[in-house]
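re: ur question from earlier - yeah i can do the single chain one, its not a big deal. heres the input i used so u can compare w yours
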Amino acid sequence: MKNITILVPDGENNLSSIVGAYKILKRANSYWEEKYKKTLYHIQLAGLSGQVDFHEGLFSVKPHVHISAVSKTNLIVIPSLNHQYEQAIAKNQPLIEWISAQYRGGAEVASICTGAFLLASSGLINGKTCSTHWAFADRFKTMFPEIDVQKDKLITDENGIYTNGGAYSFLNLIIYLVEKYFDRQTAIFCSKVFQIDIDRETQSPFIIFAGQKSHEDEVIRQAQAYIEENVENKISIVELASKFAVGRRNFDRRFIKATGNTPTEYAQRVKMEAAKKSFETNSKNIKEVMYETGYSDMKAFREVFRKITGISPLEYRSKYNSHAYQDNRKQLNLE
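and the output i got, formated as tokens:
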């Protein structure tokens, strides 16, 4: 029988991703057993301690085994961490070494949300792509600059290593793994039982862009502030560079180094974040929002909005604006 091992790192990390992964994978296993009269996987929790407490002792998890008792596994699931990443990494060095050894021995590894910090510290994804919670992607890049962070991606799948985006999007990763490790029918069954959308590919609609300010380039910080204060205007990057007395090529280079975006990409993200907030909070139509974010070409506005959010302006407004949502329900005679 093959093995799936869900890790329980030391420290008050994320309980829901441990419980959720265990419940869904166990249900997939029992469905397979009912259908084919055969148990496919031995699923267990493993850690460094006999008991790990969560939420100031309100909840506790008692792993089935110590990691030393697992000589070989087929899939390792790393749960998400709390925000004390350096502390979590320091506390769990034996766990990190065990993950590396298991991967070298043929195991695959899946990290949930900020579990990517634990995975990254193993060195297994140096030079590879990785996703994590969008809110902590910049910190991740700072700690692990050799890893290609794809914060728009819901799931990455590369060389037997899977990572996913933030929070409860881990449910989508587990369904993805169910399809990989069981079959499509089992994944569909679990998606229906647990009411999880199947085949979702992006966390872009959920990203709140706050600007990348954790750098020391004061000129670029001033340029960022100028862009953010002039959302309604069409900004010329040539003029912006000139305003701060920096040559265009050097300006682009410094901007990318400081923020991870080109000046044009940064301006687009700022404008689209303003458009998102407008769609969420008022009844303005798409054309009005387009004009107030400095666009005059509807096609260009729609293309940039979809590129950044993964959905169209109309879809976004319908989904997140309560008045638009109620109007749609009335039109569909749902009320």
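The chain has a mean pLDDT of 91. not sure if urs matches, ping me
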